[in-house]
Amino acid sequence: MLNEKIILGIDPGTNVMGYGVIKIVGNRAQMMVMGVIDLRRMGDSYLKLGRIFERVTGIIDEYLPDELAIEAPFFGKNVQSMLKLGRAQGVAIAAAIHHDIPIHEYAPLKIKMAITGQGQASKQQVAGMLKRLLNLDEKEMPKFMDATDALAVAYCHFMQMDRPQTETHYRGWKDFVNKNCDKAIRSLSILNQQKKQININKHI
C-alpha cells in the first residue's frame, strides 16, 4: 500500500487568505480543494482574526491534514501592514497547533523557486505551473490567486519532503513556543482580545 499524506497550504492575508489542500499518494500529488477566506467585508481587525481561526479550524476538521505549510510574511516597508499580516499568520498557525499538526514555514522566494524555478515569478506564472503540475482544468482555476498561492505552498512542501529540512519547522505547541516565544504570546493575546471583543459586541 502506498503511503498517503494530506498537506494544507496557507497564504496568509488580512483581507483575503488563501488555502489549498493536496493529497500525496506515493510520489504523486493531487489537489483536494483550494479557495479563500474572504475578510473584505469585516471592518474590525480582531473579528477578522477570529474568523481566520474559525475557518482554518473548519478546514482542518473537514480535510484532516497531516501537516501545515504556510508562507512566511514578506518584509515590506509598511510596518503596520506587516504587523497585521503577522497576526493573521500567527492565528492560522495557532489553529494548526491546537490540532497538534506539524507546521512548516516557507519564504515566498523559496516557494516560487520550487514551483517555477524563478524566484521573481508572478502569481500568474505560479498558477500556470500548478495547473500543469496538478493537471487542473481551467474551470478549477480560482478567481483569487491567493488560492493558487496557498496551493503552491502545499506543493512546495511536497517537493521538500524527501530533502533535508532547511525551512522553519514546528512539531507542536511546545516547540513553537520555544522557537517563537514572543509570537506565541502575541497570538494568544490576540485571540483573547478577539474573544473579549465578540462578548462586548454581543452585549451592544
What is the CA-atom radius of gyration, in angstroms? 17 Å
Q: Distance between the terminal alpha carbons, to the nearest Å?
A: 57 Å
CATH class of the largest domain: Alpha Beta
Overall mean pLDDT score? 85
Q: What would CATH call the architecture of the largest domain?
A: 2-Layer Sandwich
Q: What is the string of SSEs from the N terminus onward?
A: EEEHEHEHHHEHH
The CATH topology of the largest domain is: Nucleotidyltransferase, domain 5
Biggest sheet, spatial arrangement of strands: 3-2-1-4-5-6
Summarize the structure.
It is found in: Cytoplasm. By secondary structure, the chain is an alpha/beta fold.
Give an overview in words:
Helix content is 51%, strand content 20%. It has 204 residues and is an alpha/beta fold. It has two domains: 4-162, Ribonuclease H-like superfamily/Ribonuclease H (Nucleotidyltransferase, domain 5); 168-203. A six-stranded mixed sheet has the order 3-2-1-4-5-6. It is globular, with a radius of gyration of 17 Å. The N and C termini lie far apart (57 Å). The model has no long low-confidence stretch (mean pLDDT 85). Keywords: Cytoplasm, DNA damage, DNA recombination, DNA repair, DNA-binding, Endonuclease, Hydrolase, Magnesium, Metal-binding, Nuclease.
